[in-house]
Amino acid sequence: MFIDKAKIHIKGGKGGNGIVAWRREKFEPSGGPYGGDGGNGGSIILKADEGIRTLMDFRYKRNYSGENGEDGRTKKQFGKAGENITIKVPVGTIVKDEPTGKVIVDLKEKGQEFVIARGGRGGRGNAKFATATRQAPGFAEPGTKGKERDIVLELKLLADVGLIGFPNVGKSTFLSMVSAAKPKIANYHFTTLKPNLGVVRVAEEKSFVIADIPGLIEGASTGVGLGHEFLRHVERTRVLVHILDVSGIEGRDPVKDYYTIMEELIEYNPKLKDKPQIIVGNKMDIPGAKEGLKKLQEEFKDQTIYSLSAATSQGVEELKYAIWNVLSNTEIEYDSFDDEMYEEVYEEREVIVKKEDEEYIVEGESVEHLLESVYFDDVDSLRHFQETLRKMGIIERLEELGIQEGETVLIGGYEFEFFH
């Protein structure tokens, strides 16, 4: 078991701008504001998909952006909303905020979805700002930016496939050929204490985790040799690939070896005999292997026996796809993380009103966005800006800090003179 990790950058689409437009029709002499709202930006959605086993695809693509919303149109028509982007991840993926390391969500249910980066809101057109006392607003509102962040995807990988067989039958060689794993391979009958794991990529959104389980010796079920350590790993896999040496070069009988291994598995846990299993005759490049393969085929007439030469790559691709096909038809049981969770709240930062070195400062995403929507050469737009500052409680807070008429207030890099 190991942790598969991927860091990606995600960004919700920007909301479209509202527009300033006027009604200009022959039989409507009074005209009027006619600008429509911008469309919302597309969001980034994570979806747990049981068809995906690993995070390997995220090594090839690391940036994801939602589509921007379209600007509003005349005749009060809304701009088109941006398309959402759905990112498929394996069931059991934990999502963390990269800067803080905090857990955002644990996607442990099949089909579970989570909006990880919301798109920006579309801005309102000038038609939305018309009131009884402001019948011709000459300003509109820009769209807001989408949420942008770096996240880390983590998956606790339990091997989908366990390679089983006696030591020195070619398990490690096969693993090294189909994955990026680099197990130590040598011609000896001893083995490491931990399984080597690798990720095998079949195609886009199709990959699986394979484990070269330490070689088994008779008596493992009673604790001899690696014993229970080995068998505990076998229990956690979903499909067993039983690799047998059919060459006879060491005087081994592949049929006898098969039953010896299976006896150990069943002795430890009888349920292991029900796991899906693929039988492989290896070392087909060695003279005499055809006879050993024939013995297996005669013993297991109702099963497909795959032939393999891990040393020369013969049969490697065929076996890889055969494993994927079996996995695709096997139920999945996922383990997930138990980290303390927290709920992500998609609220804008609070507005901060403060006094520093005799200067009055107003900060915050919402007030900065408000500032972007101001048309400074339009009296109605400036009046709307002042009214909104008052509704947000900013004027009241400045007065509590002791601001006087004519003093300067800094808002988003702009200087304003304070007047009641």
Automatic annotation (TrEMBL):
Location relative to the cell = Cytoplasm
The EC category is hydrolase
- The UniProt record lists the Obg domain at 1-158
Residue sites binding Mg(2+) per the record:
S172, T192
Ranges where the OBG-type G domain occurs: 159-328
Q: Which residues bind GTP?
A: 165-172, 190-194, 212-215, 282-285, 309-311
Indicate yes or no for the key word Coiled coil.
Answer: no
Top-level division of the source organism's lineage: Bacteria
Task: State what this protein does.
Answer: An essential GTPase which binds GTP, GDP and possibly (p)ppGpp with moderate affinity, with high nucleotide exchange rates and a fairly low GTP hydrolysis rate. Plays a role in control of the cell cycle, stress response, ribosome biogenesis and in those bacteria that undergo differentiation, in morphogenesis control.
What is the name listed in the Swiss-Prot or TrEMBL entry for this protein? GTPase Obg
Origin species, per record, is: Tissierella creatinophila DSM 6911
